[in-house]
Amino acid sequence: MAEVTGAVRKSLWTRARDMAAQAPPERNRYVDFLRALSILAVVVGHWLVAAPYMKNGAVEGGHLLGILPWTQWLTWGFQVMPLFFLVGGFSNGMSWAATLRKGGSYAGWYSGRLQRLINPVLPLFLIWTLFAAFGTAMGVERGVVAMAAQLALIPVWFLSVYLMVAALVPLTWKAWKRWGFASFWALVAGAIAIDVAALRFGVAYVNFLNFAFVWLAIHQLGFAWSEGRLTPGRALGWGAGGSVALGLLVGLGPYPVAMIGVPGSALSNSMPPTLALLALGIAQSGFALALEPAGRRMLDNLTRWTAVVLVNGMIMTIYLWHLTAFVFVMVAAWLLGGIGLDVAPGSAAWWLARPVWFALYIAALLPLILLFARYERGDGKGDMETPHWRLILGLVLISAGLAATAAISIASPAGVTGVRLWVVALPFIGAAVAQFGPVHRLARSSLP
Asked: How far is residue 240 CA from its own chain's centroid?
């Protein structure tokens, strides 16, 4: 077994090294590095803050940020989704500009992105639908099933937002080309207006509009980066400015320290995003781009660059399945009598045990990567002309399903199956609408 595992590992590394060696010299390797770094930081952060423990023979879903309030400051480093939207803006801007130069179409461009992002999600939905259904049928308490499914499927919220941001690229790119940084500041102004309406005047539900204003603003900074408008020296100023704004908003304003939701907190900076999270995103983007020259020199080393290529080749799988691996380890510990779960979260013993638990999470994640990373490679159907109405309808159905999953879970408190089948069905139906039917294939390209 060890020989087989070693052979697989060698094969993956060798393949990544070959791809790394073939990368064109003009490719900005730092973009790939930031993408990998941001996802890995999210994984580590999730594995840290989820702190279940045994109480009176039952598993309690502890949350480290609520147990140890000082750890909320760590979210300023671990909440790195802004970096992913920054990288997305860079990649989407470069890709869309290339599509325009070559006379390509929006349908061909977006259908490829839609497929690469949604295809890895469908196996995850299928597995957890089966788990919830079989768990319910076998008499597992519905609350336990719901907690496990909700935890494992947390990552899908991000895809719902990112798919919509990517769908708007032709409009946001046009705005960038016409107005430059003014298009960014207009979105910042929108985010300010939304927070004032929500927090000062109590307008219900208006704060959800900041899923658009905040993430589109960071995405615009990615456009600026792709055109060389955020040089390291200038970016350092943006980082400092974002940090000052963040400090003022948290210190003098109504915003909490934690950049993710904390159980019991009246306000979350991430669900939906607030002006404080936008300030954090500006700070992170500025400091990250200020370090770009050093980062690019670091990635001249083939071994380091190969590691980045390896992670990027399975990045969606890592992101989507890392909490499933966590749940599998927790279930195994519970079945073994709660071994290791009797330690109080946040205690010295709990911290000392983190390396062991992390090793177990990684061990559980590796086979999932080997099984499901293939779905990131696609099947070529993204290189097709899909009618716009089908792309839009497919996007709406997919995003509605992913958002509902994050908000209310696929597990149902009632019914025979124990599953909200309509929630599960939406992404599958949306993918089918957007990818199948009377379309014609485009010439394959090497667009990023």
From this structure: 25
pLDDT of residue 23: 83
Q: What is the pLDDT of residue 374?
A: 86
Question: Has residue 298 been placed in a domain?
Answer: yes
Peptide bond into 256 cis (omega under 30): no
The pTM of this model reads 0.90
Task: Please report, as a single letter, which amino acid is at residue 202.
Answer: G
Please report, to the nearest 10 degrees, the dihedral formed by the alpha carbons of residues 72, 40, 172, 270 taken in order.
-20
Instruction: Tell me if 93 is assigned to some domain.
Output: yes
Nearest-10 Cα torsion for 439, 444, 446, 448: 10
Those residues of the chain that have pLDDT short of 50 are 1-2, 4-7, 382, 437-448
Q: Which amino acid appears at position 222 of this protein? A: G
* Angle separating helix axes 421-435 and 121-137, nearest 10 degrees: 160
Retrieve residue 349's tokens: 């013993």
Taking alpha carbons only, the member of 56, 48, 80 closest to residue 288 is: 80
Q: What's the pLDDT at 286?
A: 97
Does residue 3 form part of some domain? no
- If you compute the radius of gyration of the chain from its CA atoms, what whole number of angstroms results? 22
DSSP structure class, residue 209: G
Give the domain extent around 68.
22-440
Query: At a CB cut-off of 8 Å and minimum separation 6, what does 225 contact?
Result: 86, 89, 90, 289
Contact residues for 208 (Cβ-Cβ < 8 A; gap 6+): 272
Supply the DSSP string of 280-321, one letter for each residue.
HHHHHHHHHHHTHHHHHHHTTSHHHHHHHHHHHTTHHHHHHH
The answer to whether residue 110 is domain-embedded is: yes
- Which residues share a beta bridge with 441? 384
